[in-house]
Design a protein that fits this description.
The chain is mostly helical. It contains 8 helices and 5 strands, in the order βααβαββααβααα. β3 and β4 form a beta hairpin. α4 packs across α5, α5 packs across α6 and α7 packs across α8. The two termini are about 30 Å apart. The structure holds zinc ion.
């Protein structure tokens, strides 16, 4: 199995990072985070070496998103991008997930250990878990959803019902 591991991060660490990104987009008090606007407009404005690219299905095949931290580039498949524009929760989450790889998974933070087959690495060092956790924290702000139902969260945050339910128990 080809698994890599990342520097350990707790959900609390990841929540803090999501909070900083929300600050950059100017919306700590808003339920909805516009991830498309952040990647397309805000981040290139802050960092002019960052590139956001929308690629065709033919170019990206089964990859919904691809991040090259060394090149400072995020690529998103066109259908994913188009659905994210019209608020598909799953596709918005894909874009938030890729943002975390860009921010955190540079060469110096990632290593490739030999892990016995069928042995799972713990979540807190799994880069995919970290990126998913970040996506949830960024799109569903922990401090604002208390007392809301899953349906309200899904509607107001622009996420899927399952993502909303999942985030409620964190
Ligand atoms: Zn990933």
């Amino acid at each position: 199995m080809n698994q890599c591991i990342a520097e350990p991060l707790s959900r609390r660490d990841i929540r803090m990072m999501a909070r900083k990104i929300r600050l950059l987009e100017g919306g700590l008090g808003k339920l909805y985070f516009d991830i498309v606007h952040f990647l397309e407009i805000t981040l290139p404005k802050i960092d002019d070496s960052f590139t956001f690219t929308v690629k065709t299905m033919w170019e990206m095949k089964d990859c919904h998103g691809l991040t090259y931290p060394e090149r400072n580039e995020i690529q998103i498949r066109e259908d994913v991008y188009e659905r994210a524009l019209v608020d598909s929760g799953r596709d918005r989450l894909t874009m938030a997930h890729e943002l975390f790889h860009l921010l955190q998974h540079q060469k110096e933070n990632i290593s490739f250990p030999r892990i016995r087959e069928n042995k799972r690495i713990p979540a807190y060092i799994d880069p995919e878990w970290q990126a998913d956790a970040f996506g949830g924290e960024l799109l569903i702000p922990h401090h604002l959803i208390k007392g809301m139902t899953a349906e309200e969260i899904a509607f107001q945050c622009g996420v899927s019902l399952s993502a909303a339910k999942c985030q409620m128990v964190k």
